[in-house]
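Dear colleague,

Following up on Tuesday's group meeting, I ran the structure prediction for the three-component complex that the binding team flagged. I've pasted the input sequences exactly as they went in, so you can double-check that nothing got truncated or mislabelled along the way. The structure tokens for the whole assembly follow below. Feel free to forward this to whoever is handling the docking comparison.

Inputs:
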Amino acid sequence: MVLDTNKDLAEPKGIWSWITTVDHKRIGLMYGVTALVAFFVAGLEALLIRLQLTTANGTVLSADAYNQLFTMHGLTMLLVVVMPVGAAFMNYFIPLHIGARDVAFPRANAFSYWLFLFSTIMLLSSFVLGGAPDGGWFGYAPLSTQLDEFVRMDYYAIGAQLLGIASIMASANFIATVFTMRAPGMTLMRVPVFTWMAVVVSFLLIFSLPIFGVGLFQMFFDRNFGTQFFGGGGDPLLWQHLFWLFGHPEVYVLILPAMGIVSEVFPTFSRKPLFGYPFVVFSGIAIGFMGFGVWAHHMYTAGLGPVAEAGFGIATMMIAVPTGVKIFNWIGTMWGGKVRFELPMMFAIGFVSLFVIGGLSGVLHSVVPSDYQQHDSYFVVAHFHYVLFGGGVFGYVAGAYYWYPKWTGRFLDEKLGRWHFWLMLLGFNLTFAPMHILGLNGMARRTYRYPEGLGWEFWNQVATVGSFLIGISFLFFAWNLIRSRKNGRVAGNDPWDGRTLEWSIPSPPPVHNFDEIPVVEHVDDFWHRKYATDEDGRAVRMPDVTGGTLAAETTTGDDGEANRGSPEDMHMPSPSYYPIVAAFGVMVTGYGLIYIPVGWVAAGVGLLITLWGFFGWSLEPVTRDAHHD
Amino acid sequence: MTQTAHRAHPTPAMYWGIALFLAVVTALEVAVPYIPALDPVRVPLLLIMAVIKFGTVVAFFMHLRYDKKLYRTLFLFGVIGAIPLFLVVLLTMHAF
Amino acid sequence: MTSQTAPVEAQEHHDIRPIRKAAMWVFLGSEAMFFGSMIATFLLYRNNTADGPGSEIFDIPFTSASSFVLLMSSLTMVLAHNAFEKRDGRGTRIWLAATALLGITFLAGQIYEFTEFVDKGLTLSTSSFGSSFYMLTGFHGAHVAIGIVMLLAMFFLSLEGRLHEERGLNVELVGLYWHFVDIVWIVIFTVVYLLQA
């Protein structure tokens, strides 16, 4: 099959090709790189925080600087690092997992990325334009609505709004993709767990982000148009409800893709199917649903009243159940399997153990009277870092070691990887384990210094040492990522003897993903093409399927035509510059809104650019040689 | 060319009929606040009428009645799910 | 939920409408939460009038007339879709134009109403009631305006013979959006106007 004569299918080169790309794989890589850079930025913010808190009455940072740094650390890590890392993996692998050539709306996909990038730039630029948001990532009113000699919280109100729009679009994109573009035979209960979790996450975002969006508009209006949503005749508690109605589902958005990744890594490196696939899927769905019913457990001390507090307390305890189900399924996957302690597996096991610890402190929070003591203390900081870093980051890093060979065709270096793992494990625990003690001993969070004589200095010093170890471990990781692209051991198409469809195509994949859309007959369909089971239930390697492209079966679609995608009838979506234009216009509008009344002009200009982008986008043909128009 | 054939489809005459129905319900709705005898049941009555109009537009004009069951499920979950969420917020804030 | 009939993907000459329709319903789901939050906010603040005007300034007969206009625009919208399915270009354009016209009439009514209310002392900043009323009805009006733009765009595309079934901006999708904007108003009319009268 001669592919390189077809311009559409050759791998495009040059900066312009990245700027106009609509290829989900490239978009995924861009999300990942951006998120990694942001991780270092947010990590630096954390190190500064740690330096300030190492000693009592610290003088490294002023209160004002501290407020900006801890606000941006939270905001960046959650909205600019972890969510986009999830988006990176989802972008790259959803189409590959379901046997598709791209997502449902490739240009909208590109738009989501560019809007994310520009919103991030806008948010970070606030540091040098009068100060970054300083009201906490949770932006409680009336603090967030009152100080209006600075525009800082306007950066928050607009920045988070724009990031939310990018996420909503991406979520609609992914849902449409998984529900309508699966390969023949791929029923929903044959979809890999990672992609299932992506679907749950997309629904969580679709339903929770708009609520946050309303709150952000209300905050912006209170700050700029004299409305009374949270002040005057309004109630600051409304903000808390609107925020946490989003904020709680958000934490499941952060963790579920990592759980999905781990659900792929465990079976591969135990050489066993995932234990209880339906349970893992349904528990993910249950977590999604229940995640909407527990938001006020962030508000126990806000005076909700005993009925509400009891109700949310019980609901919160119950949500531990589906999570526990997953843990047992992962353990069950390892049990009796041939476990290989490769780097992805090490990080995945790290995920499970550290996440369990974080989950246990979470259950302690669910008990209302107990939380009265723990709320706003470092015990909470310990809890969420264990689940988000010990859980989330370990899981996403596992995904990076697992899938790096697929992205680049090479393995990440083994030795550097082990340095990364052990330093990160040690550094992480040194940093956050002591915070349980500090919290229970009364140290309050979100404050820039603490007094002498309360005995908090020692564990703060330990935590600071740990945080620098984390930093060093990530330097190993970054160096590994960069270096292994050229120097890494060559991986083939299927370096781990994997189970899912992405391992059936070359590393890195061609633009069109699959030469032929596979017809799927099992969960872990690729595994079943490679192995049959003998009478003793053992896997027997099939001789004629290599780890390369799927063997040329001529499959028939239901219209009688062969499903073979030959170059002549494979129309990949054409690149387009309208997504980046439209996203740029939105950013200009955003800046304009932040600086109203002067900014109205800029907002107007931005709107025109956006409209130009959207109109051009809707009127251009999807593919270069579309037959209509 | 399409795989998903359009099944039973309302005719224009049916659409006019539905529009008439909606107009009548609207007229009744508007009348309710002006009838003092209905004051004790005003709230549930108006809510029910709004739900009827809402459902009629969604089912027939938006074609949900004839579409894939999946859409109906998703939509109903969304709408029905949203209501308890906001109800809890309003109740804890003593809005009623 | 099996996918034996799933199209391979959009670009290979298969009907992309199920994909776009799925996306539109998902989007409408998120819009439902968006308006739901604003309606809840209004319900919370419906009595927070801060010595300013409250629901007594509503003109129920006038708003009823606007509501009726918007309701009928759903009829014309569905007739436009019907004509389009029958490949009746002229009919499509007539009903699209009618829908846009009714939408513009509704918006005009809203603008008139707002100027009346401002005259009577109700602005965004008068009270929480004012803030939440204008935010809810304002965002709704903005959605109507965007809908009118899309209707007019389709009208002109149809004139040029460029309105195709497989196009992204097609009549069915815009119809779904338009009906949604109508049903949101059904809720607003009941909750904000009739229930507070």
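Residues 10-62 of chain B form one domain.

Cheers,
M.
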